[in-house]
Design brief:
11 strands; 2 helices; Jelly Rolls; binds calcium ion; 238 residues; 5-stranded antiparallel β-sheet; alpha+beta
Amino acid sequence: MNSNLLLAAFALSLVSAGSQANVITQWNFNSIVPDNATGTGTTVPNIGNGNASLVGGVAASFASGSASGGSSDPALSDNSGWQTTTYAAQGTGDKTRGVQFNVSTLGYQNISISYDLRHSNTSSRYEQVQYSLDGNSFIDSTVFDGNSGDTWFNNRMIDFSAIPGVSDNANFAFRILATFAPDSSTYLPSNGTSSYGTAGTWRFDMVTVTGSPVPVPAAVWLMGSALFGLIGFRRAQS
Ligand SMILES: [Ca+2]
Ligand SMILES: [Ca+2]
């Protein structure tokens, strides 16, 4: 292998090391010790660290993550979801009620989030996802459409890799909020034959933040030095 090929292989190895997606934090909402009761669960992450909280007076409990087709949670039993209710009255409180997740992305880049969400018949059809770089002010991202009631919408995903401030940020957070139908001032029900109501529920599961490790400059320098040393050695031998 000549030195150019060696350099190319070295560069390729750096690229592949930087593109591996790791789960930074995940919530499956299942009891840490399975108790065969989906009405009990936890908001402590099953992987990594983070904080799950409620926004705007929403109430929460735990309910089955397997009923109604189920979430993507691979748990064979005691699969819970985080059940939320008490959303805003019709025509009020656009993007003020839902859930929030705070996850430090320190040491990671190419951040993505994903989640599963069951819409009840009378829940808000539209989900506004927002993100924050400082943990306080939130910026609108994707709006998802949950156009069916009593239905799980799995693997909702947003790729934040094009937003540099999301990477390597101790204050990263995101929210998923009930929002009016586009270009209107009313909520639509998820089931088109139902009426939107404050008692409608959204049930979350498998809330996941992924990223790839930020390359460590010292390690890169050491690898590069070792490689150039090897090239020099091979040239000296030939
Ligand atoms: Ca349980
Ligand atoms: Ca679950």
